[in-house]
Structures are given as structure tokens and as C-alpha cells.
């Protein structure tokens, strides 16, 4: 019954998920083929505040949870496609400093295809790393959020 709720509400705006009580998203990341740097299984934890929906805490967990980097991300919701952008900068991230790409842009959408729904995904998207000052951006990871119970 709960899965039917998610199936019928694919493509809804992301801020409706926050309104329905989901305040914490665990974003799983898989490296793209063009990303030359080794990346162990990493995930990001997005914590949304109950009252302020334009900002969220982004916690990057790598190496089995031994390394944690925290930052505050700015959230922008788009109304038409049911998606959101989260932008920010990890100050202590060594991979970003090596490449001179400290900034990130996480794009997540609720408009998913049937195959992604049957894999248990609630949101799918991409992570781009780059440098705002230089205007250089590169897609580095596929991102997805699984539904509860998967």
C-alpha cells in the first residue's frame, strides 16, 4: 500500500516530500566512468530543517563511515519538473582540493522511470563537481535515494 503511494506520486515536487515528513535522505553515489579518481563507496546524508527548507546540512561519508565532511547546502526547488538542486562547498575534502574542484551541485528529481522505481529508488540524479570562479563543472557521480524498506 505504501509502495502504491510512491508509484502514484512520481513526478511530484520535491518539497511535497518534505511536507509529508521525510526530513532525512541518504543519497547513494556511484562514480561515473569518466571520473578518474578512486572513490570508495560514498554516500551523502541530507538533513532538512523543519522550518527552513532552503538550506540543509550535507554530510559526506566515505571509507565505511570513517571520514565525514559536513557543510551547509543551499536548496533550490523547481516547480515544473519536480526536482531540486543542492549546491555547496566541502572545505576539508581532499579530492576536491587536488582537482581544484571544491564546489558541488547535486541534482535530484522525482520523475523516475519504471525500472528505477522497481529497483526501489525514490529520487535519482547527478552530482557535478567544479569551481564556481573558473566556471568549470564535470558530472562525477550518479546519485539515487532509496525508499524506506529497500
Q: Can you walk me through this structure?
A:
With 150 residues, this protein is an alpha+beta fold. It has one domain (2-146): Lipocalin, CATH 2.40.128. It has four helices and eight strands. The chain has helices at 2-8, 14-19, 94-99, 114-118; strands spanning 24-31, 42-48, 55-62, 67-78, 83-89, 103-109, 121-131, 136-146. The chain has an eight-stranded antiparallel barrel with strand order 1-2-3-4-5-6-7-8. The radius of gyration is 15 Å and the shape is globular. The protein starts with a helix and ends with a strand. The relative contact order is 0.21.
Give structural attributes.
Lipocalin; 150 residues; alpha+beta; 4 helices; 8-stranded antiparallel barrel
List SSEs in N-to-C order: HHEEEEEHEHEE
- Specify Rg, calculated over alpha carbons: 15 Å
Spatial sequence of strands, sheet with the most strands: 1-2-3-4-5-6-7-8
Shape: globular
Number of domains: 1
E-strand count: 8
Average pLDDT works out at: 82
Oligomer: single chain
Write the topology of this structure.
Blueprint: H1 2-8, H2 14-19, E1 24-31, E2 42-48, E3 55-62, E4 67-78, E5 83-89, H3 94-99, E6 103-109, H4 114-118, E7 121-131, E8 136-146
Antiparallel strand pairs: 1-2, 1-8, 2-3, 3-4, 4-5, 5-6, 6-7, 7-8
Amino acid at each position: 500500500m505504501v509502495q502504491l503511494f510512491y508509484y502514484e506520486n512520481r513526478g511530484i515536487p520535491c518539497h511535497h516530500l518534505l511536507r509529508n515528513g521525510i526530513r532525512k535522505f541518504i543519497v547513494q553515489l556511484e562514480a561515473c566512468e569518466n571520473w578518474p579518481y578512486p572513490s570508495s563507496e560514498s554516500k551523502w546524508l541530507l538533513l532538512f530543517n523543519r522550518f527552513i527548507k532552503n538550506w540543509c546540512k550535507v554530510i559526506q561519508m566515505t571509507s565505511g563511515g570513517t571520514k565525514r565532511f559536513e557543510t551547509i547546502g543551499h536548496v533550490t526547488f523547481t516547480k515544473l519538473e519536480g526536482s531540486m538542486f543542492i549546491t555547496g562547498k566541502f572545505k576539508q575534502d581532499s579530492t576536491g582540493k587536488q582537482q581544484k574542484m571544491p564546489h558541488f551541485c547535486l541534482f535530484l528529481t522525482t520523475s523516475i522511470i519504471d525500472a528505477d522505481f522497481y529497483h526501489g529508488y525514490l529520487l535519482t540524479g547527478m552530482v557535478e563537481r567544479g569551481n564556481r570562479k573558473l566556471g568549470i563543472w564535470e558530472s562525477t557521480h550518479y546519485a539515487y535515494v532509496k525508499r524506506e524498506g529497500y
